[in-house]
Amino acid sequence: MSAESTDEQTPDEQAPDQFTALFTTSAGEFKIQVTRNWAPHGADRFYALVTQGYYDQQRFFRVVPGFVVQWGMSGDPELTSEWQRKRIPDDEVSQSNTRGRVTFAATSLPGSRTTQLFVNLSDNTNLDGMGFAPFGEVVEGMEIVDSINAEYREAPDQGEIGLRGNEYLNDHFPNLDHIITAKIAD
Question: Exposed/middle/buried for 1, CB within 10 Å: 0-12, 13-18, 19+?
Fold first, then answer.
């Protein structure tokens, strides 16, 4: 990585106060309703990623029954690399990580959120104190989220996904469910 491509916190254009995203997946459809004031930076980034088609053709690469369904690494390694440098500031936790709530994944470092997010499959309120700030919730199709293939659990290697994208996932984890399209619902 060159000196010019170092990580930076990147603000996104402000999202609407409330909006809904429709995810059409290999398992079926679900809708995420976003309330911007829950976590403004997270809502703005999610809106930017959905409107730019970032989540299209992505795999649900981490599915832990009773815990989370996670995605957010592009099938195109160059696109993943570009967005991984665009970190978003942390949000205060104003809502709890209860079943169906949607939250950006992060490391233990401040300001580490980028593109990965997860849906809570159960009440994971222990994540609240760790700084995971929900920005939305599944309002239709939670049964679809529950049915996303969990056979590989946490086996896909995020480093390999970053290097090879969907090529790696298709070669080693061919049964992963995936997003066909994600768009702002009318």
Answer: exposed
Q: What is the pLDDT of residues 81-132, one digit of tens each?
A: 999 999 999 999 999 999 999 999 999 999 999 999 999 999 999 999 999 9
Strands (E), the chain: 8-9, 18-25, 28-35, 62-64, 68-71, 86-87, 101-104, 117-120, 134-140, 179-184
- Write the pLDDT tens digit of every residue in 71-89: 999 999 999 999 999 999 9
DSSP-assigned letters across all residues of 44-87: HHHHHHHHTTTTTT-B--EEETTTEEEE---SSHHHHHHHHTEE
SS3 163: helix
pTM of the model: 0.94
